[in-house]
Amino acid sequence: MRFRRKKKLSLEKQIKLIQLMNNLFASGFHLGEIIHFLERSQLTEPIFTQKMRAGLLAGDALSKILEDLAFSKSVVTQVSLAEKHGNLSETLTLVERNLRQLTEVRKKFIAVATYPLMLLGFLVVIMLGLKNYLLPQIASGGNSSNMATVLISNAPRLFLGSVVILALTGFLIAWRFKKHAALTNFQQLARLPVLSNFIKDYETAYFAREWGLLISQGLDLQQVVALMRTEKNRLFQEVGETLAASFLSGHAFSDEIARFSFFTPELALIIAYGELKSKLGVELALYADECWARFFERCNRAMAWIQPLVFLFVALAIVLIYAAMLLPIYSSMNNVL
Q1: Is the pTM here over 0.70, yes or no?
Q2: Are 55 and 86 found together in one domain?
Q3: What is the pLDDT averaged over residues 276-294?
């Protein structure tokens, strides 16, 4: 029973569920009818339709039901805001499209990394064989050690040490993220050389899209900020609280946005320009689409770099193995001569 509680929808099943719900909403179904359809059709596993039924009976909104199904916080926040600004169909379409793109990026990453990682595992096995069989024979033959043989003999320790260091680093980063405010974490992450562009494009697209939809539905900036403060997404909530405090101090919305390092510099300019033309909602939505496209384009370019780097590492390891085998042989030949 514990295993069932921890079970969650895979990314592919999340996409199918969002697509199906969007189509049914567009056909005039309400949430209760959609859940009944899912139960009868068995297109979704019973454990998940039971959770959806329980949420419906408890009076939960769609966003809360998706949260119970372990959808990401960003998806839950988008749907929660859509329930307020009323444009649920467009939001579900956007969620489905982004999840599909995320799935493609994940598949590319797996495809790019699988073969090099298999080679790397094979090399580790070869190094263990060299350490246990070849190096003892070299040592018994009186041949002096070289840098390659020293590295191979210590390769298991180096590999294990690297794994432990990476695991501890990941644990410390996760602990620090939980301990500090999300706003502080993202402000610092956006200053990192490699991650900054990814974070800026993603967060700008995410916030600009939601702001654009809310403003297009007739909400003013004060109401948008008030809604932000009620959401469960920590970053969304903390940005809302910061903006609310800036409004009380008399600061302009665009000036405050420019202070967040995880937004692109163009976002503040678009907000200032959009306010002057009274077309802020439309321009934010258009800019969000551009940022989403740029974010996934960066992801695809990053995938193209990963495999060559892994292959380069594998090639260096192969050269090291050859050096460990051949240098002692050359040394023995020189002694004979």
Answers
A1: no
A2: no
A3: 85
